[in-house]
Amino acid sequence: MNRKFTASVILGLAMAGTTALTGALTPTQKVADARTNFSLEAMIPTSFAGWTVDTSVVPLTPDPTQKELIAALYDQTLSRTYVNAQGQRVMLSIAYGGDQSKQLQLHLPEVCYVAQGFDMVKDRRDELATGFGKVPVKRLVARQNARNEPITYWITIGDKAVKSGLDQKMQRFMYGLSGRIPDGMLVRVSTIGADEAGAWKVQDRFVNQMLGAVAPQARVRLMGEAPNHG
Amino acid sequence: MNTLAIRSMRSLRDALPEWWPVLLGLAVLFAPTFYDLFTGPWVGEEQGHGPIIFGLALWLIYRKWPEMLEATTPARSSWIGWPILVAGLLAHMLGRSQKILMLEVLSIILVMMAVLLVKRGGRALRVLWFPFFFMIFMVPLPSEFVAAVTMPMKMAVSWATEHILFAFGYPISRSGVILQIGQYQLLVADACAGLQTLLTLEALGLFYLNLMRHPSAFRNIGLALFIIPISFSANVIRVIVLTLITYYYGDAAGQGFLHGFAGMVLFVTALVLILSIDSALQWFIRRREAIGAPLRAKEAA
After folding, report:
1. Four-residue CA torsion sign, B254, B259, B262, B266
2. pTM of this structure
3. Residues of A in Cβ contact (< 8 Å) with B176
4. In this predicted model, what pLDDT tens digit does every residue of A66-83 receive, in sequence order?
5. Candidate from B20, B99, B114 with C-beta closest to A102
6. What is the DSSP string of B101-138?
7. Whose CA is closest to A190, among A87, A96, A80?
């Protein structure tokens, strides 16, 4: 009887101890709070390197049922279409969430486009070389009827650009273990057209010129603190 | 019934001197988890089946508790309980502090298993294996996995709906998961083809089988496997019903209260299909037993 009671006490104490430890381990400090406030609208110039905002075309936005979710998910979103003198159009969409813990995680284009009836024709990982280091990106091609839309996107968690999926979860997890709640950003550029190789080139040039045109601090926000060189 | 209640009260009182530290520990450990679950995921659409499954599992455990006590007297502690406890507590710690719901819910099962093993030994788990297995269905799956599985299911459901309605002469066309019928456009959403409905049906089907206590493994496994196509058909029927409601009564009707009605259609259809396939399997078993040898000879040939 006595031994049985001892086992009960050990079980009970282990559980209570775990609760206390869990409380101590739970991150409370938001990375976003430590950073200075910023506005996506102001951060990205409306014209740079020959690109100007074209208000006649709006990039794919979520349908109304998803809008609520997006509002809960992100603190700031930016959605613009740029056009240059040659008539090339690039759609830029940026979403920023200050709290990447909980279930509030970045809503990936793979899911977002497909949920709205697009077929995801291609989906591969790539690296986008910029003048400030390489960024791990995903290249997608979404298609719906006649609309063929090559997409390039990347995400940052905290101060690092990461591959989506497992890498993103790991980075969030590492932050969590160090007691901090990371923020996150999703940067997506896309063009409409059948020529994919040409589209990637236009998009890469656009991203490079955009990163060159913003302030250094904004650039760090967009592509992460420590992009892998080489 | 009254005597039963009194008896279980008495046995609870007898057990308290030995069990109170465990019960207190469980309460301290899981009260925050359950508070979060009941104010978050468990009232939402995606994990709405969680409380049902947990409740049913608790009921099953309660029902089998006396049998378990009988089988494990005198109680022999099993050392395997301790590593499982450590795993469960680690899962809770990581899951809760890092907001990984999957681990947090999994730890409920692991810790309960560990308590049972330490207090009553391996034989207790053998008696209560089903409720513990059943609880696995309340563990949320990783979102990547859900997204990866849901998409092809949505495509398949849309495809089947298009072909069936087209065969009946309706003006329907499809692009991806968007159905166009007449002047209306319908988007087959995640919930309409969800993995979650499949898992819930599978869980309820298994629960039904467990209650029926049919000894035939053939029938049990057969029905468990049949639930997958049943769930698919039920989903197709739901989407067809929604599509037709929209076609005849307009968009508002399709999105309004009739949407909920279509959800009911899904579960009723699934239930009818499960019951009829179960009857068919039973009939098949009886026939096989009746004919016996000749049938086996035919199978061989």
Report:
1. positive
2. 0.73
3. 114, 117-119, 144
4. 666 666 667 788 888 899
5. B99
6. HHHHHHHHHHHHHHHHHHHH-HHHHHHTHHHHHHHGGG
7. A80
